[in-house]
Design brief:
Layout (H helix, E strand, L loop, with lengths): L1 H28 L14 E4 L2 E4 L4 E7 L2 E6 L5 H10 L6 E3 L4 E4 L5 H38 L4 H34 L2
Antiparallel strand pairs: 1-2, 3-4, 4-6, 5-6
Length: about 190
């Protein structure tokens, strides 16, 4: 029975790591004043009728601290890429010169920085909710084991261990949010 609890805790910990990885990938997409090609991750372009990630139809590179260049592999993809960027409502207007698209990132205003911090906090809250749901599922599994003959003390120890793992992952979420907020708010 003890190995059952250990496996429940291990599965919960693994799932919480996935929630943290998701948070990290979402926070990278939120710009903090510097150009980053990962800002365009998740942007989908209409490629001859089928949706394709932008990085599979174009070469994305950073020209300088505030400029991203997108060079499509086919010239006729310039318009669909431009439309996808506008539709994504990123607050960036694409500049098309007929061969490549440049994205000039405007300096962030104080108001926009606060909006980005709120967006980061929203992503953090989603991660915390996911972590709490994983904790709930793990505790329910332990309670099922208790009904099937696990001692009450062992069940309480298992629940305490799950809570300890949950607290450590919640602290990691907070650390990521503080670092991103500091990055966004620094001028």
């Amino acid at each position: 029975m003890a190995e059952d609890i250990a496996s429940i805790v291990a599965v919960a910990e693994d799932n919480m790591k996935k929630a943290i990885n998701h948070l990290e990938s979402e926070l990278v997409k939120i710009r903090a004043g510097k150009a980053n090609p990962q800002m365009l991750d998740g942007l989908v372009v209409d490629y001859y009728g089928s949706p394709m990630p932008i990085n599979q139809v174009a070469n994305i590179s950073v020209m300088d601290a505030r400029t991203i260049s997108i060079q499509p592999w086919e010239k006729n993809m310039l318009q669909p890429i431009e439309r996808a960027i506008i539709a994504a409502n990123m607050g960036i207007n694409p500049q098309n010169d007929g061969a490549l698209i440049r994205l000039f990132l405007p300096p962030l205003t104080e108001e926009r920085r606060r909006e980005l911090v709120k967006k980061c906090q929203g992503e953090g809250e989603h991660s915390k909710i996911a972590i709490r749901n994983i904790r709930r599922d793990a505790i329910e599994s332990i309670k099922k084991l208790e009904k099937n003959g696990l001692s009450e003390d062992a069940a309480k120890d298992g629940e305490a261990e799950v809570q300890q793992v949950t607290d450590s992952f919640t602290a990691i979420v907070e650390k990521h949010l503080q670092a991103k907020e500091k990055e966004i708010m620094s001028v």
